[in-house]
Structures are given as structure tokens and as C-alpha cells.
Design a protein that fits this description.
This protein is α/β, with parallel strands linked by helices. It is built from five helices and six strands, in the order βαβαβαβββαα. Strands 2-1-3-4-5-6 form a six-stranded mixed beta sheet. The two termini are 12 Å apart.
């Protein structure tokens, strides 16, 4: 491997939906991957103001706790008409009074703000999903891999697949939202099998090319 020795890797996430996608992406490569949640590691406070900073916080925390290479993803939805919000605060917009997350509330908040700004036409409702993977290594170095996918915010939400804001995001070149796509369509990239569609798949493809010997 170009980035680290051995086959063991910690996936530094407690997010079940994100973990499913990363597990799907990792599966073809034969890595011994275990999540921070499965190891019972605490969730570090994400105090960064960029995706890179938050990804590093999570990856470093898992790496230091286990002594193993750790891969973390920080991702979010950036809406042009909202000056890039919710951005790194994408998950925070879903927080409820009892400490849980409700992405129905988060999607409604985005829509309410777009309506307030009278952003009704598709070309006024542009945005992108961003994913940044950080690989933190025990010797103290880190690598970053960024993926983005452009699209349009639709309303009302469509589809019940995926997670987060997927039901309101329609990627360019498609007539269905991420919430209407199967896991294989959205993020099922494998070497030699087409173009990665989702932001997370695009970031992972860069990681695989740099660290897993993928051409």
C-alpha cells in the first residue's frame, strides 16, 4: 500500500448511515475494518470550521485510541443561495431538543430559508454535497481526499433510501434524488466499474487510488 502498512483500519465514525456506505466501499479491498462506534470509542467534539479540520479531529482521536491507521469522513450539504450553509454544520441543523437528530426538520429548515429568499427556480437552488476523508497514521502524518457532487435542491423530499438530506438532493445528470437511488447507484463504486457518483464515493476513490493500489 502507498499510505500505510498492514490491512487493519479503524473507520472513525458513529454514524450508522455513513458507516454502511464506507463499509460498502471498503468491502472489495479485503481490509480488516472496524468502526469507532463498535470499539466503544467516545465521539470527539467537532470544533473545526472546515470539513478537513473535522475529519482530522475524528481520525486522530481514533488513531490515538487504537494505535491503528484511522479513516474519517466529514461531509455536508452546501447550498449556494444560503452562502454555503449548512456546510460543516449539516448534522447540527438536524439536532432536536432531546439531543437526537431529525433530518426531516433539517430538510424543512433548508426549504424554509430558500422560500424566504424566493429561490424557487431550479437554477436558484443549486448546491453540492462535499465529503473529505482524512487518513491519520500512527507515525503522526495524515492524508486528505476530497469529493464533491453538484446538484439541485428539490421539494418536497423524494424517496426513503439513503440518509440525511438525500431525499432533497438531485445530482446533476439524474432525474431522481439520492433518496430514490439504491445504495449501488449512489455510492457503489468499485475499481473498473464506472464513475463514482456520490461525494463519499468520489472521495473514497481518491483514497483507494493513493493508498490501496488502485489504478
Amino acid at each position: 500500500m502507498a499510505c500505510f502498512e498492514g490491512r487493519k483500519l479503524v473507520v472513525a465514525t458513529h454514524n450508522a448511515g455513513k458507516l454502511r456506505e464506507i463499509d460498502d466501499l471498503i468491502a472489495p479491498f479485503g481490509l480488516e475494518a472496524v468502526s469507532a462506534g463498535a470499539l466503544g470509542l467516545p465521539e470527539p467534539e467537532e470544533t473545526g470550521t472546515t470539513f478537513e479540520e473535522n475529519a482530522l479531529i475524528k481520525a486522530e482521536a481514533a488513531m490515538r485510541a487504537t494505535g491503528l491507521p484511522a479513516l474519517a469522513d466529514d461531509s455536508g450539504l452546501c447550498v449556494d443561495a444560503l452562502d454555503g450553509d449548512p456546510g460543516v454544520y449539516t448534522a447540527n441543523w438536524a439536532e432536536t431538543a432531546d439531543g437526537t437528530r431529525d433530518f426531516g426538520i433539517a430538510m424543512q429548515k433548508v426549504e424554509d430559508l430558500l422560500q424566504e429568499k424566493r429561490k424557487l427556480a431550479p437554477d436558484e437552488r443549486r448546491g453540492r454535497f462535499v465529503s473529505v476523508f482524512c487518513l491519520a497514521l500512527p507515525e503522526g502524518s495524515e492524508r486528505y481526499f476530497r469529493g464533491e457532487v453538484e446538484g439541485t435542491l428539490v421539494w418536497p423530499p423524494r424517496g426513503s433510501r439513503g440518509f440525511g438530506y438525500d431525499p432533497v438532493f438531485m445530482p446533476d445528470g439524474h432525474e431522481r434524488t439520492f433518496g430514490e437511488m439504491s445504495a449501488e447507484e449512489k455510492h457503489g463504486w468499485k475499481p473498473g466499474q464506472g464513475t463514482a457518483l456520490s461525494h463519499r464515493a468520489r472521495a473514497f476513490r481518491k483514497f483507494a487510488q493513493a493508498c490501496l493500489g488502485v489504478a
